[in-house]
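Treating backbone geometry as a discrete language has practical consequences that deserve illustration. In the encoding step, the backbone of a single protein was reduced to a row of integers, each denoting a local shape. The amino acid sequence and the backbone structure tokens for this protein are reproduced below.
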Amino acid sequence: MTNKLFKIIAAVGFYGAVCLMASESATAQNLSEKLTTDPKTTTGVLKNGMKYYIRPNSKPENKVELRLVINTGSLMEDDDQQGLAHFTEHMLFNGTKNFPKNKLVDNLQSMGVQFGADLNAQTGFDETVYMLPIPTDNPKNLETGFQILQDWAQGALMTDKDINEERNVVLEEARADLGASDRLQKKFLPRLLNSRYSERLPIGKDDLLRSFKPDVLRRFYKDWYRPDLMAVVVVGDITAEKGEALVKKYFSTLVNPTQSRARIAYGANPYTKQEVMFLTDPEQPSTRLSINFSPRKTEADKTVGDYRNTLVEQLAFSAINRRYRDLASAAVPPFTAAQTSNSSYIRNYQALSVTVLPVSDLTTALNAAVGELVSIQEYGFGKEELELVKKNVLSYIEKQYNERTTTNSAAYLEEYEQNFLVGEAFPGIEKEVELYRTLLPGITAEEVTAAFNKLFSKEDKEKFFAFVLSPETKDAAIHNEATLLAAIQKSFAQKVEKKAEVVVSTTLLDKMPAKGTIAKVEKNAKLQTTTYTLGNGIKVTVKPTTFKSDEILFKGVKKGGTNSYGVADKITASMLGSLIETMGYGKFTPTDLSKALAGKNIALQHAMDETTNEVEGRSDIKNIESLLQLNYLELTAPRLDQNLFNGFVSKMQMQLKFIKSNPQAAFVDSLVTVMYNNSPLRPVVIPSEAEMKSLNAQRAIDIYKKEFASADGYHFFLVGNVDEATLKPLLEQYLASLPATGTAPKFVDNGLRLKSGNNKFVFKKGTEPQSLVVAQYFGEVPYSEDMALKANMIGDILTIRVIEKLREEMGSIYSGGFSGSLEKEPYSHYSIETQLPTGPENVDPILKQTEAEIAKLKKDGPEQKDLDKVRIAIIEKRKEEIKTNQYWLSKLQQLEFSGYSTDRFLAFENEINKISVQDIKKAANTFFDGKNSFIGVLNPEK
């Protein structure tokens, strides 16, 4: 369950938009035309007022996504109910008419539905949403799912005993949010929200959560959980007829109260003056400035004209934020990041806001961020920059349209929720194609400029609320409310020069590489793959799929990794991908490359882990050649740019300057140091100032060329809607042409090990009553895929026990669990670990209970029902994942590069079904042999 404070609609996001490329022959749209409802969706309203949405969708197969959406949240709470909208959400997982106490979670786990990962809910100011994915292999599951939704709607038991037992869990959830962010929010939110919203934060008040009478909670449920405030959403592998029949069967009998309370729509108030706050906290890890202008009343789009107006505004925000990204990538960046958005944290209102994180000083960052807004007022958006934004919009939308028959069910859920809650339209893909074809080409830079200037007017600049969140900064030019206000006023009045639009080359390669050859072709009937061995030794394994209509995933891997480098190069190797990316490739700076790739749905990134070097990217069908061109460019032509390198380092230094003021960050950094016995080769958690100063641009280029530029040892994988006849000449042109040196890369074991023995480390930092328990049990055993699976299952089994014991029985945690792994490289080693956020008073009982659960697992093995739950969850997850390109990309790497067993993979369900209680017990005694463990505890200073 998540406690949703408020939702920000990203300025670059586009509601449900899908489109084909614009056509010159497109006919003009009638702007007064009403937006219709997607014909693929069945909607209706029951006699009791409950609304429903049903959409058949077979991706993924044998799964239905259910949602119960309730048009009520924390705003509806009475004064004696603050926090009880969220508490109600908790109670619906803790006892209903047909599923008393923990039977609901237990029943769903037996289907393979995992608590937290799948089964979840969220409470906001205005709404509460319950999420329930149901596997439908067994027809009874769907009936059970609808029965659960019905129980949530009006079947909660809410016994005094259950309510009182849940208090500690809710308080633990509230405890997790404590810290600098919470302390500062309590100061600025009342002025930012300037309405009832600031008085009804969903998490509520601790004192009330501890002391409220159970009848007060039941009153909230009775008043607000009623069918005329509810909607049921059903999307998935189900017919519309069956979905509608189940909705009517389970929800037609629900009744509204005889006298229903009015659901008041609380609005927002405009700011009446220029007001600022300068807030500091010693645990705040960075400085942030936010300028917020008065919220404006909005309405959901109802006509084509409304839709067009929204699109015009969104283009403006996308263009502004592109300017900010360019500035943040400059040689002397004024800020690490900045964003202007149309925030909608109050329902049916939007407010222009500017947020900026400085690199060195606030004055420079403020003037740069506001300067772009002043520039737009003065000179407007350029035609070329708007065309770049349009290209990206069209490219994104075209991809969504192309994948309309392979869209995942979960992608449809939010648009139905938003239609119910605020009336947002969902006309469907075909209609939106038509809209984008006709609307987008006619939108001019002048029109986008005018739309933005309505949001950033003279009147807006006269009334706003701004705040700074910062560590203690007493010597900065902006250091209190007076200097902050003066600086903002001055930034509004600054004079800016018009920027010349720069046209960037869109040709990635000025000269085509010399074409190579395909030396050998091998078919694998079991995996339905083809492996090409190229003339330079590169292997390329291709698996054509139709899981997504317009997706191709790409990955290259070779032996190597950070273990190949010593202490002097450790920080450079660990940050290599970012260091190279910040300088660009060939003739392109990062900003130029972004412009050159506008309108192309491709992406590529590089990384080194301990033992491998990896290149990973994606493309749509039409841009696969561009992706392979980009790969050739990036592998062979890293660009040395000392100024851009220095700019990146300066941003990183600012981000790291105060990071250890955060208690958890400081704890993890110190814990890793101690766990690895202060080895200079230990993993980098927070780079030190000395490490950042040691970074060298030329050395980064040298390492990159050695590790990535040569063909030696590469195995590439392409998975997706690939046409192999089209692909083969591209492989010859862009992969077979990579230079080879004849040097075979290898895995390197640098000898780094965790500190042996049973150790405990207690770290004290922070002022809030928060603790964190980290436990790791580790050692070396011979690698086998069977033992690796058992390690994973043991982690899942212990997670079930943790939820039952530490959360439900003891009330000592809100979230937490175990994970287990057995790794093959650089040496065969295992780790079973857990992280448990809690309070200092719970640390010892938690450690004691955790050890008791481990001891029980070693003595008796798991309960059969827990083993069955874990097994079915893994199988259900695999059934869904095996129909995705990402799963096959990683699986082929394991099978073809790392040497995992294909026969075992194909017989996976048989293998996992063989594992018995005694097998897990035996494995637990191997993993928990008592020889090596590390317990880390973060406690507050007092």
Observations:
- Residues 1-27 have pLDDT under 50 and may be disordered.
- The first strand starts at residue 2 and ends at 3.
- The two ends are 30 Å apart (CA to CA).
